[in-house]
Amino acid sequence: MRIRATVAAVSGALALSALAVPAAHATGESGTPYTLNVSFSNVTVAKAIKVGTTNKVSASYSYTLTHGSDVNIAADDFYTDAFLYKGAYDTAAGELYGDEPATCTATSATTATCKGTIDIYPADGDLENAWAGSWNVAAEAVAFNGQDQDNPDLSKVGYKDQSGLGSTLVQRYSKLTSTRAPSRSPRAAPSR
Questions:
Q1: pLDDT tens readout for residues 55-88
Q2: Three-state SS for 119?
Q3: What sign for the dihedral angle of Cα 42, 165, 51, 178?
Q4: Are 118 and 82 in contact (CB under 8 A)?
Q5: SS3 106
Q6: Cα(104)–Cα(68) distance, integer angstroms
Q7: N or C: which terminus of the chain has fewer CB atoms within 10 Å of its end residue's CB?
Q8: Residue 168 — left, alpha, or beta (φ > 0 → left; ψ -120 to 50 → alpha)?
Q9: Which pLDDT value is given to residue 174?
Q10: Whose CA is closest to 49, among 130, 177, 167, 164?
Q11: Could you give the CA distance from residue 31 to residue 37 in angstroms, rounded to a whole number?
């Protein structure tokens, strides 16, 4: 399962509500997710990711997740990941996610180190040639808090995303090849 499918309902609901969720609300009042008490820092990702035209390419990432004591990152329905976006965050030309959520290891009661991969499938149209170049890094977390993930009461779901956490280059893999044999310069006839 790709992580984008897991959080589609939550992020879609946020987009519809114009991201207008006051941080002071512990729960939403109109079926809007509340702002999850998390933040992301120390994000690392490859400086450049080289992608061909057919084969899947994976790039590892890691980050520190800081969370409130009320956030259970060990819950089966808590998900977090980092992803790439091209252009401005609110109007991204493209986004690249991983197949699975990040795996987080607690380093204290309120911090964890999270690791995962961004998986790119160029043969499936994940990357257009025009999108080669600089991409930005964002991260997100969602806590379903026991809600049915197919039909959640969004007012009981926590969600947080954060953009501008870093950047990387996504490059089309190129390789110089030649099918022509090298030309040989004629040998000069030995002089007598």
A1: 999 999 999 999 999 999 999 999 999 999 999 9
A2: strand
A3: negative
A4: yes
A5: strand
A6: 15
A7: C
A8: beta
A9: 63
A10: 167
A11: 18
